[in-house]
Amino acid sequence: MPQHAINSQNSTNAKPALSRLSLRILVYIILVSTIFAILSTLVQLRFDYQQDLSVIEETAIKIESSLAQPMAASLWNLDEQQLEIQVEGLLSLATVQSVQVRELIDGNGVPILLRGDINAPQQTKKSFELIYQGQPVGELIIGSSLHSVIERIKSKAWISLLTQIIQTLCLSIAILLIIYFSLIRHLNRIVEHTRSLDLDKSAPGLKLQRPAFSSRKDELDSLVETLDQMHQRIHSELRANQATNIALQAERDFVKTVIDSSNAVIITLDKKFKIKDVNPSGVLLTGFTQDEMRGQNWISLFVDHEQRNIIEPLLASGKNLQDIELNLTDLQGRQQTLLWSFALVYEHERVKSIVAFGHEITSIRSSQQQVLELNEQLEAKVSQRTQRLEERNRLLASTLEELKDTQESLIAAEKQASFNQLFQIFSRELNLPIASALSDAQDLRLRCEKISEQVTITDAAETLDQQQQQHLHLESQLERLAHVTSNFKQLVVDDEQRIAYAFSINDNIQQLLHSMHDRLENQHVSCHIKCDPQLEIHSYPAAFSQIFSNLISNSLVHGFDQWSGERRIDIQISTYRSHLRVIYQDSGKGIEPTMAATLFSASPSSAQASANGLGCHIIASLVRQLLGGEISIDLSEGPGSRIKIVLPLEENKKNLI
């Protein structure tokens, strides 16, 4: 076909191509503008929707601040009329669609008043707790309608979207016109000039049609200059091709020399795997000459029979292959191992030939086989030792289980022995008051029988006086019996002591002293407390009352018994970091050093029970087990008894949780 015909055809095809470019630009502009319009509309609608929700939320906050307390008072006072008025007032608000009032009964919310459409769709609900004088009495649930908000958003969405589409179309047309006059028409001229160029001849430079007032160069002018420079460069490159071909021939000769002198086997194959050329290393490996190998199938010469079915599909796949290990048996019958790689040579995007590279690795594989055998022997030894270790581990596990069973048995026996000791102490404590009370009762019965037989005024007076003394003694023994029984019951922390909440420890002790006022006054004992009135802790107030009650009782019974000195009890309570420190001190007889070491032991002995009862054991149990603290006796602070108690406040919070 003549050159001018080709140029004419290319020029004719250029216009539809540029027309398609204009159409694509228009489509891209419209698409991007439409997406931007939709996104901006969605952002605006999202903003408007959030504003409407903020109005509903602000209304709910105002309702909570203004009506929650009055409605709680109406609910507490059972004023249904006032509650109706308040609910109707809420329904009159524009954002309120439904109102529900629930009364708190036994911890459950029971609906007592329902107004509005509670189950309506597109409704958001907000609940408020109704609290009267610090106590929750019910719950207020307000439903706000979103229907009007959504409808307004929908109408606004259509208007905004239509406006954006119209703006997008007008803007796209204007941009396309600008692009055509400033770019596309110049591109058409550049294309026509480029297709008319003859690479064998020189041509005048291209000049773009520019307005007279436009003198500054732009990117299109730079493109035209580049095309002219490229045309000139092609002429010089064509002249340089001949010199390049000569250099390439020299390179071919050099490469052939390198291939012939290489220790690796290098073979050129055609698409049917027939040998086209082979270097001298292949001749030395097989024993055949180069002429004998040319035209032969590479697979039949270099691959043993059992591996041919494996390598042939791989070569036929049309891919470069790396590190394919194959066995070869030479003319002397020696088997050798080669590591092959195959590179495809393309010409016009089609496979022209295959270059095979083979490296002899027979000695390497022999060494690897020896290493594998050594590894297998080592693995066998490791397996044997592993089995021995597993057997020893199973034996150790069995021994550990036996030790655990023995430990559990010892713990159970120790618990049973401790319980038996406590029961003996409890029996010892009960025997004396019961026997004394029984003796007094029998003596009273005999005296009553004697009085019924013969009574004089003098005998009657003496008998009545003796009966009064015996009654007092009997009452004392029965009180002691009740006290011992109560103490034994408190050896296990009951449910009341496990109720924990925030309380003032100063108020707790003051209430205890008020309940023990008569006992303190009868024995002329003064009690002084040094504690911050504002100190509040989260713990078990019943346990604290029991601890201080037993401490004071021990002082009254043992510390001030037949004591003629000052009768005073001091209680100091303070906090240090995360601990509560309690110092209890009386001015009585004090505690003997031999008894102080075991007074607050885990299980009291019979001697301790006879001297102090079970009160000290109860104190130690509450302090250590329930409150997680420590209790000790300080014998270095002069006369009287001084007891220190340290309680971790953080531990009490954990127990509370």
From TrEMBL:
Q: Which residues form a coiled coil?
A: 364-484
Q: According to its UniProt record, what is one Pfam family this protein matches? A: CHASE5
Every copy of the Histidine kinase domain together lies at 425-651
- Where exactly are the transmembrane stretches of this chain? 25-45, 161-183
Listed InterPro entries: HATPase_C_sf, HATPase_dom, His_kinase_dom, PAS, PAS-like_dom_sf, Sensor_dom
- SUPFAM superfamilies, per the entry: ATPase domain of HSP90 chaperone/DNA topoisomerase II/histidine kinase (SSF55874), PYP-like sensor domain (PAS domain) (SSF55785)
Keywords linked to the UniProt accession: Coiled coil, Membrane, Transmembrane, Transmembrane helix
The chain positions of domain PAS read 251-315
Q: What is this protein called?
A: PAS domain S-box protein
Species: Alginatibacterium sediminis
